[in-house]
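Same chain as my last thread, 205 residues:
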Amino acid sequence: MRTRLAVGASAIALAACATTQLEGQWVNPDYGGRSLRGAPVLVACEARETTLQRICEDQMAAQIAALGGTPTRQWQLAETATEPATGTDPYRAAAGRIGARAIVRTALSPAAAVAAPAGPTIGIGVGGGSGGRGGGLGGFGGISFPIGGTRVSSAYASETALIDPANGAIMWSARATGNASEDVTGQIAELARTAADAIRQAGFF
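reply #2:
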């Protein structure tokens, strides 16, 4: 039986099997039973790039709206601010401007990178034998390698917290990790959906 060793095969297989997972969450018992349905909510995201920040805020705002909240994105307030934010938490002042009853703050960070072949592969047979249907050298094994280099897909992790704007207390928090993909928007959408579903199950909506 011919065996092929594909470059990065293990990593690719693991990425294909992975899904967006909620790795852990915490609920503040002091806020049990608080409902945010119909309430103004400030949505803020932190990321290395502005593009990722805007995508994250759009996706999380859509999820909060679907739960029954009234979201406002942080960037909308930042663009209309007439004075700089002060204090250790820049979001509490912004939340006060819209009368928000909660802040949903998400921090995005790279979790892993997976390399995959960017094009077709060539297989070379190795070993003895007199040939056969497989062609080439016909033997016991072979090596496959990609043509045209590799393609790298990133997986992101999200740390989301539900914050009381009145005192800065964390009402709920959770961490989730996405599936490595070139579709960053789709991956962030899944992370936002996972966090929002956990917020709902915790009883805040």
